[in-house]
Specification:
Elements (H helix, E strand, L loop, with lengths): L2 E6 L10 H11 E7 L3 H13 L4 E5 L11 H13 L6 E8 L6 H21 L3 E6 L2 H8 L8 E3 L6 H9 L3 E4 L7 H9 L5 E3 L19 H12 L3 H16 L2
Parallel strand pairs: 1-2, 2-3, 3-4, 4-5, 5-6, 6-7, 7-8
Helix pairs in contact: 8-9
Length: 254
């Protein structure tokens, strides 16, 4: 069963001692993985890994909204400059977006929105797919991205918002990526049940959201996402693998 992990972070320090083994298991089971840069260092590590695992690990370059409050103007400018200079190597921009979970400060929210808009403009101008992180801000992220029809593909990664908003996302022709959280979250299982396979991707968001209690997540575990979606939808595992792989290949131009 060859599937694609459409979003992971194997560049994170959690893998420093075991990265080779983790990547070996991924290569045995998967067709490809998209590694998402979350900040300046993450983007640099992702590009390095893309060289090391050429034709298997593909880089998305971004800046996670979680890091926005502590980032000064020069730091953000450096991130954007490096992304621009490596644009031809990236299969997508992101992850980027809005994370309003626990963020009550209006200024911090505005700062997130400002940077998100910069990425929206860049994705539109460069005609690059955009990987969106939206938490407690799904509707706002959708409103903003709709202003940029030039963006060729939009992926709401690890989506956990309301079903109604998910349907609006799909109406725009965008994609929703289901993570391994579907293995244990009733809400995500409902989303998997109700949303059409034709606009779904599969991911781990590893090292987070492991389907196995007490075990660190890794890209090879994306097959657990595929199995659960197949079970929920009462379709063959191979069918889910085939459709989601085809979706990811189309979205990221692999």
């Amino acid at each position: 069963m060859f599937v694609i992990d459409a979003h992971c972070h194997v560049d994170f320090k959690e893998y420093n001692k075991t990265r080779q083994e983790v990547m070996g298991r991924a290569q045995e089971k998967l067709k490809a993985i998209i590694n998402s840069g979350a900040n300046l260092g993450g983007n640099r590590r992702t590009l390095k890994l893309a060289e090391e695992y050429f034709g298997f690990l593909y880089p998305a370059l971004g800046f996670h909204p979680h890091y926005v409050p502590k980032a000064d103007k020069s730091a953000i400018e450096q991130v954007l400059k490096e992304i621009n200079s490596n644009m031809d190597r990236a299969v997508a921009l992101g992850e980027t977006g809005l994370d309003f979970y626990g963020v009550k400060n209006g200024e911090v929210r505005k700062k997130q929105e400002k940077l998100f808009r910069t990425f929206l403009e860049m994705a539109a101008e460069e005609e690059k797919p955009l990987v969106i992180h939206a938490r407690d801000a799904e509707k706002k992220a959708l409103e903003m991205v709709k202003e940029y029809p030039e963006i060729p593909q939009v992926i709401f990664h690890c989506y956990g918002g309301e079903l109604d908003t998910a349907r609006l996302i799909l109406e725009e022709g965008y994609f929703i990526s289901m993570s391994t959280i579907v293995c244990f979250s009733k809400h995500h299982q409902e989303l998997a049940r109700e949303l059409p396979l034709s606009q779904l991707l599969t991911e781990t968001d590893s090292p987070y959201l492991s389907p196995f209690k007490g075990q660190r997540n890794e890209p090879a575990f994306v097959e657990e996402t595929v199995k659960v979606i197949a079970d929920i939808k009462s379709v063959a595992v191979q069918e889910v693998a085939k459709v989601t792989q085809k979706n990811a290949i189309g979205v990221f131009g692999l």
